[in-house]
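hey m, so remember when u said the C-alpha cells were messed up on ur end? i reran from scratch. heres the input so u can diff it against urs
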Amino acid sequence: MNSTPLADPESAGTLHFICKKGSSLWGIPIEQILEVTALKSINPFPSLKSEVVGMINFRGDPLPILNCADFDAPAESGSPQANAGGGSTIIISGAAGSPFGIIVESVQAITRIEAGQLTKLDLAKARPDTWIAGTAYHDGKIVFVLNLGTADSLFQS
C-alpha cells in the first residue's frame, strides 16, 4: 500500500488519546473529545444508519453510540452492546456537531503526534469521509489516527 506524508498544519503537535479497540490502537485528537466515561447500558435505538447501534442516557439526554468495530463496515446483527464492539469506556465527541459516543476497551496513553509522524493512507485520500485520517506509531505499534469530525454524515438523512 502506498502512503504519502500528511501535510496538515492543524495536526502539528496535537495531543491524542491512544485507545485500545480489539487488536488495534486508535489515536483520537484530544480537541475532538468532550469527555471519557464508563460504559453504561446501551439501549436499542431505531435508526436508518446501521452505524448507530443504540443510545445511552447521558445526563438526561439521549447520546447515540456508534459501531466502531469497523469504521467502513455496517454493523453486524446482534445486540446493541455487541454491535458497539465491546469495551468498557465511552469516548464522547462533539466533533461532528452533535455529541455521540464510541466504545473503546481502554485509554492506553496520551501522546503528542507531530505532523511529520502522521502518514495519510491512500484509503483516506480515496474516501474523504473516512474516519481514518492516517497512521502513526506509538511505542513501536501502528496507530490508526481518527478524525471524528467526519461522523457528521451519520446524523444527516
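this time it looks ok to me. The domain at 3-155 is CATH 2.40.50.180 (OB fold (Dihydrolipoamide Acetyltransferase, E2P)). if urs says something different then somethings off w ur setup not the seq
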